[in-house]
Design a protein that fits this description.
The chain is an alpha/beta fold and 305 residues long. The chain is 30% helix and 24% strand. It has 10 helices and 15 strands. Strands 1, 2, 3, 6, 7, 14 and 15 form a 7-stranded mixed β-sheet that branches. Helix 3 packs across helix 4 and helix 3 packs across helix 9. Bound molecules: zinc ion (2 copies). The site of one zinc ion has 6 residues, from helix 3.
């Protein structure tokens, strides 16, 4: 389908790609994988959409045939191609997209639609950990991915804590979600009772290597953030706990649909997240600020049309 780009979310992947530190990138590349679009032309064989439909986009193009896809683990397809990562993305006026990657939105404003993809990463990570009501959980890193994990831990009924070194982000997460356990560092978080579920959403080597210290005996650490580097653990830290370490990558189509359903049903409200909404002309000027993880910016969204 031919679509008009309405809004593009800026995320860590884009910033790392711009810096050249994202492990899955080749260049040149048009960025933009968190998209809100509007249908211009549906094309042959597409009946479920019509011109003017506003849609969220699942940027994960999967092969449908590899071992992972045939087990339903499409989020880690061996031939995964991500729009805006492996193929050119949505930082342009119009783009051709396969209809099966798109989900119709009824109510959401364009600035919130790109967050479907961000939140899908969170719903997948919380699903990996199989969070249960009352589970003691802690999220390390309160950027948009950390906040996405917090949203679904909240829906799962977990007891949530957060570790974040940037004061503004820590403030936003603790205030916005009314969290009672919030810490500016691993060292301070280690003073409390360890957690059953620990989610590292930093993509920071030091944080990923010390996150095991926050895990309760017999419990789980999920690496949601990723890094183009080696992560080393002191084996007794792992074995003493008989800890489970899980990687969480991307999300599935079903998870995108569930996220959209939660957002349109009002169970997830991320209206406060897009703190920096600019037009494409201002993006060049703002990008350096985003690159320095400018304090106070929760989520930057470029409103294309
Ligand atoms: Zn992203
Ligand atoms: Zn596949």
């Amino acid at each position: 389908m031919l679509v008009r780009v309405l809004a593009v979310g800026i995320c860590g992947t884009d910033l790392h790609a711009f810096e050249g530190t994202q492990p899955f990138f080749t260049y040149p590349r048009i960025l933009g994988h968190e998209l809100a679009v509007e249908v211009i032309e549906t094309g042959d064989g597409v009946s479920e959409f019509k011109t003017g439909d506003r849609c969220a986009v699942n940027p994960y193009l999967t092969c449908g045939e590899c071992a992972a896809c045939s087990r339903g683990r499409t989020n880690c397809c061996a031939k995964m191609r991500v729009i805006g990562v492996h193929t050119d993305g949505g930082m342009r006026d119009r783009i051709l997209l396969p209809a099966k990657q798109m989900y119709k939105c009824k109510r959401l404003p364009p600035a919130q639609i790109p967050l479907v993809e961000t939140l899908a990463v969170g719903i997948h990570a919380v699903g990996r950990a199989a969070a249960q009501p009352g589970d003691r959980a802690i999220v390390v890193g309160a950027g948009p991915i950390g906040l996405s994990v917090i949203e679904f831990l909240r829906l799962a009924g977990a007891d949530i804590g957060v570790v974040e070194k940037m004061p503004e982000r820590l403030e936003f997460a603790s205030r916005h979600y009314g969290l009672k356990r919030y810490y500016p560092s691993h060292a301070e978080a280690r003073q409390e009772e360890p957690s059953m579920l620990v989610f590292d959403c930093t993509g920071d080597k030091g944080s990923m290597e010390s996150a095991i210290q926050l895990v309760q005996q017999g419990c789980t650490l999920v690496f949601v953030g990723l890094i183009n580097d080696t992560v080393s653990l002191f084996d007794p830290d792992l074995h003493r706990r008989e800890a489970t370490i899980l990687a969480s990558r991307n999300s599935t189509s079903a998870e995108h649909r569930r996220v959209l359903d939660h957002m349109e049903g009002g169970r997830i409200d991320v209206a406060a997240w897009p703190t920096d909404c600019v037009g494409p002309d201002a993006m060049g000027e703002r990008f350096p600020l985003w690159l320095h993880r400018q304090a106070g910016v929760v989520k930057a969204v470029v409103e294309w049309h």
